[in-house]
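Async update (no meeting this week)

Hi team, since we skipped the sync, here's where things stand on the single-chain job. The sequence we agreed to prioritize is pasted below, unchanged from the tracker. I ran it this morning and attached the output directly underneath so nobody has to dig for it. Comments welcome in thread, and please keep replies under the output.
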Amino acid sequence: MMDFNTKNHWNKTIYKMWAPVYDNFFNSGKFRNARKRVFENVIFEKNKKILFVGVGTGADLEWFNHLESTVIGIDYSTEMLKQAKNKFKDTPIKFLQMDAQNMQFPNDSFDLVIGSLVLSVVQDANLCLKEMARVLKLEGHIIIFDKFSPKGKNLSPLTRIFRPIIMLLGTDIGVKFESLLEGNNKTLTVQEDEDVMFNGMYRKIVIKKSHH
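Output:
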Protein backbone atom coordinates (compact mmCIF):
# COMPACT_ATOMS: atom_id res chain seq x y z
CA MET A 1 0.00 0.00 0.00
CA MET A 2 1.34 3.44 -0.94
CA ASP A 3 1.89 6.03 1.77
CA PHE A 4 -0.25 9.16 1.82
CA ASN A 5 2.03 11.52 -0.13
CA THR A 6 3.04 8.88 -2.66
CA LYS A 7 -0.60 8.05 -3.43
CA ASN A 8 -1.46 11.72 -3.85
CA HIS A 9 1.45 12.20 -6.25
CA TRP A 10 0.55 9.03 -8.12
CA ASN A 11 -3.07 10.14 -8.51
CA LYS A 12 -1.90 13.47 -9.89
CA THR A 13 0.20 11.64 -12.47
CA ILE A 14 -2.54 9.17 -13.40
CA TYR A 15 -5.23 11.81 -13.79
CA LYS A 16 -2.92 13.94 -15.90
CA MET A 17 -3.08 11.05 -18.36
CA TRP A 18 -6.81 10.45 -17.83
CA ALA A 19 -7.82 14.10 -18.30
CA PRO A 20 -7.97 14.30 -22.14
CA VAL A 21 -10.04 11.11 -22.46
CA TYR A 22 -11.89 10.94 -19.14
CA ASP A 23 -15.28 12.01 -20.52
CA ASN A 24 -15.08 9.37 -23.25
CA PHE A 25 -15.19 6.71 -20.54
CA PHE A 26 -16.91 8.24 -17.51
CA ASN A 27 -19.33 10.77 -19.00
CA SER A 28 -20.82 8.69 -21.78
CA GLY A 29 -23.03 5.62 -22.11
CA LYS A 30 -23.92 3.98 -18.81
CA PHE A 31 -21.93 6.46 -16.75
CA ARG A 32 -23.69 9.45 -18.27
CA ASN A 33 -27.07 7.80 -17.70
CA ALA A 34 -26.04 7.08 -14.11
CA ARG A 35 -25.08 10.71 -13.48
CA LYS A 36 -28.42 11.80 -14.91
CA ARG A 37 -30.22 9.36 -12.63
CA VAL A 38 -28.30 10.61 -9.60
CA PHE A 39 -28.92 14.31 -10.17
CA GLU A 40 -32.01 14.81 -12.32
CA ASN A 41 -34.46 14.77 -9.40
CA VAL A 42 -32.33 16.76 -6.97
CA ILE A 43 -33.96 20.09 -6.10
CA PHE A 44 -31.41 22.88 -5.93
CA GLU A 45 -32.63 25.88 -4.01
CA LYS A 46 -31.61 29.35 -5.11
CA ASN A 47 -28.86 31.35 -3.42
CA LYS A 48 -27.14 28.36 -1.83
CA LYS A 49 -23.43 27.53 -1.63
CA ILE A 50 -22.60 24.26 -3.37
CA LEU A 51 -19.24 22.46 -3.32
CA PHE A 52 -18.21 19.80 -5.82
CA VAL A 53 -15.44 17.69 -4.30
CA GLY A 54 -13.33 15.98 -6.94
CA VAL A 55 -15.10 17.93 -9.67
CA GLY A 56 -12.78 16.46 -12.31
CA THR A 57 -13.75 17.50 -15.84
CA GLY A 58 -17.05 18.90 -14.57
CA ALA A 59 -19.15 15.94 -15.73
CA ASP A 60 -21.76 16.53 -13.01
CA LEU A 61 -22.04 20.27 -13.52
CA GLU A 62 -24.19 20.02 -16.64
CA TRP A 63 -27.11 18.84 -14.53
CA PHE A 64 -27.23 22.08 -12.51
CA ASN A 65 -28.33 25.67 -12.98
CA HIS A 66 -25.12 27.54 -12.22
CA LEU A 67 -26.60 31.02 -12.18
CA GLU A 68 -28.80 30.68 -9.10
CA SER A 69 -26.21 29.50 -6.57
CA THR A 70 -22.58 29.98 -5.62
CA VAL A 71 -20.78 26.94 -7.04
CA ILE A 72 -17.20 25.92 -6.29
CA GLY A 73 -15.47 22.87 -7.76
CA ILE A 74 -12.22 21.49 -6.34
CA ASP A 75 -9.89 18.83 -7.66
CA TYR A 76 -6.34 17.71 -6.94
CA SER A 77 -5.53 17.36 -10.65
CA THR A 78 -4.78 20.62 -12.45
CA GLU A 79 -5.22 18.87 -15.81
CA MET A 80 -8.73 17.68 -14.94
CA LEU A 81 -9.56 21.21 -13.74
CA LYS A 82 -8.38 22.64 -17.06
CA GLN A 83 -10.97 20.48 -18.82
CA ALA A 84 -13.70 21.71 -16.48
CA LYS A 85 -12.69 25.37 -16.76
CA ASN A 86 -12.76 25.15 -20.55
CA LYS A 87 -16.25 23.61 -20.55
CA PHE A 88 -17.71 26.13 -18.15
CA LYS A 89 -15.68 29.25 -19.00
CA ASP A 90 -18.86 31.27 -19.57
CA THR A 91 -20.30 30.51 -16.13
CA PRO A 92 -19.60 31.99 -12.67
CA ILE A 93 -18.38 28.62 -11.34
CA LYS A 94 -15.12 28.91 -9.41
CA PHE A 95 -12.56 26.12 -9.82
CA LEU A 96 -9.78 25.55 -7.27
CA GLN A 97 -6.88 23.10 -7.11
CA MET A 98 -7.22 21.53 -3.66
CA ASP A 99 -6.78 18.28 -1.76
CA ALA A 100 -10.17 16.85 -0.76
CA GLN A 101 -8.52 15.40 2.34
CA ASN A 102 -7.39 18.82 3.53
CA MET A 103 -9.81 21.46 2.27
CA GLN A 104 -8.97 25.12 2.71
CA PHE A 105 -12.49 26.19 3.72
CA PRO A 106 -13.84 27.20 7.14
CA ASN A 107 -16.20 24.90 9.01
CA ASP A 108 -19.89 25.06 8.01
CA SER A 109 -19.28 26.82 4.68
CA PHE A 110 -21.63 25.01 2.27
CA ASP A 111 -25.33 24.13 2.04
CA LEU A 112 -24.66 21.15 -0.24
CA VAL A 113 -21.54 19.06 -0.86
CA ILE A 114 -21.34 16.70 -3.82
CA GLY A 115 -18.72 13.98 -4.21
CA SER A 116 -18.76 11.90 -7.37
CA LEU A 117 -16.19 9.14 -7.78
CA VAL A 118 -13.89 10.76 -5.23
CA LEU A 119 -14.04 8.56 -2.11
CA SER A 120 -12.80 5.65 -4.22
CA VAL A 121 -9.88 7.74 -5.51
CA VAL A 122 -8.37 9.52 -2.51
CA GLN A 123 -5.76 7.91 -0.30
CA ASP A 124 -7.88 8.24 2.86
CA ALA A 125 -11.62 8.02 2.13
CA ASN A 126 -12.49 8.37 5.81
CA LEU A 127 -10.56 11.64 6.07
CA CYS A 128 -12.18 12.89 2.86
CA LEU A 129 -15.68 12.20 4.20
CA LYS A 130 -14.79 13.92 7.47
CA GLU A 131 -13.68 16.98 5.52
CA MET A 132 -16.87 16.97 3.47
CA ALA A 133 -18.87 16.88 6.72
CA ARG A 134 -16.72 19.58 8.33
CA VAL A 135 -17.28 22.16 5.58
CA LEU A 136 -21.02 21.33 5.37
CA LYS A 137 -23.48 23.50 7.27
CA LEU A 138 -25.71 21.95 9.91
CA GLU A 139 -28.86 20.53 8.27
CA GLY A 140 -27.03 20.49 4.95
CA HIS A 141 -26.68 17.48 2.67
CA ILE A 142 -23.92 15.45 1.03
CA ILE A 143 -24.68 13.64 -2.23
CA ILE A 144 -22.29 10.82 -3.05
CA PHE A 145 -22.06 8.92 -6.34
CA ASP A 146 -19.36 6.28 -6.13
CA LYS A 147 -18.45 2.62 -6.23
CA PHE A 148 -18.26 0.65 -3.01
CA SER A 149 -17.73 -2.95 -1.99
CA PRO A 150 -20.98 -4.94 -1.58
CA LYS A 151 -23.06 -4.20 1.51
CA GLY A 152 -22.74 -6.83 4.21
CA LYS A 153 -20.17 -8.88 2.31
CA ASN A 154 -16.43 -9.36 2.42
CA LEU A 155 -14.36 -8.72 -0.68
CA SER A 156 -14.26 -11.73 -2.98
CA PRO A 157 -10.89 -13.46 -3.52
CA LEU A 158 -10.86 -12.18 -7.11
CA THR A 159 -11.49 -8.60 -5.97
CA ARG A 160 -8.70 -8.87 -3.41
CA ILE A 161 -6.32 -10.03 -6.14
CA PHE A 162 -7.19 -7.28 -8.62
CA ARG A 163 -7.69 -4.46 -6.10
CA PRO A 164 -4.01 -3.36 -5.90
CA ILE A 165 -3.68 -3.53 -9.68
CA ILE A 166 -6.76 -1.38 -10.27
CA MET A 167 -5.54 1.07 -7.64
CA LEU A 168 -2.59 1.78 -9.93
CA LEU A 169 -5.15 3.13 -12.43
CA GLY A 170 -6.27 5.69 -9.86
CA THR A 171 -9.26 4.08 -8.17
CA ASP A 172 -10.12 1.59 -5.42
CA ILE A 173 -12.77 -1.11 -5.84
CA GLY A 174 -12.63 -2.13 -2.19
CA VAL A 175 -13.91 0.91 -0.27
CA LYS A 176 -16.65 -0.04 2.19
CA PHE A 177 -19.08 2.82 2.72
CA GLU A 178 -20.54 1.35 5.90
CA SER A 179 -17.10 1.49 7.52
CA LEU A 180 -16.70 5.13 6.47
CA LEU A 181 -20.05 5.99 8.01
CA GLU A 182 -19.14 4.33 11.32
CA GLY A 183 -16.35 6.85 11.74
CA ASN A 184 -18.66 9.78 11.04
CA ASN A 185 -22.07 8.72 12.36
CA LYS A 186 -22.16 11.20 15.26
CA THR A 187 -23.30 13.95 12.91
CA LEU A 188 -24.20 12.17 9.65
CA THR A 189 -27.42 10.30 8.86
CA VAL A 190 -28.07 8.43 5.61
CA GLN A 191 -31.37 9.52 4.09
CA GLU A 192 -31.10 7.67 0.79
CA ASP A 193 -28.99 4.76 -0.45
CA GLU A 194 -29.82 3.69 -3.99
CA ASP A 195 -28.19 1.18 -6.32
CA VAL A 196 -27.41 3.02 -9.55
CA MET A 197 -25.25 0.83 -11.76
CA PHE A 198 -23.51 -2.55 -12.14
CA ASN A 199 -25.69 -4.47 -9.66
CA GLY A 200 -25.19 -2.03 -6.82
CA MET A 201 -21.46 -1.52 -7.19
CA TYR A 202 -22.20 2.15 -7.93
CA ARG A 203 -24.55 3.84 -5.49
CA LYS A 204 -26.21 7.18 -4.86
CA ILE A 205 -26.06 8.05 -1.17
CA VAL A 206 -27.65 11.15 0.35
CA ILE A 207 -26.49 12.14 3.83
CA LYS A 208 -27.75 14.82 6.20
CA LYS A 209 -25.64 16.60 8.81
CA SER A 210 -27.43 17.20 12.08
CA HIS A 211 -27.02 17.14 15.84
CA HIS A 212 -27.37 13.67 17.35
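Quick observations from my side:
Helices lie at 4-18, 22-26, 29-39, 78-87, 125-135, 157-167, 177-182.
Residues 4-18 form the longest helix (15 residues).
Reply here if anything looks off.
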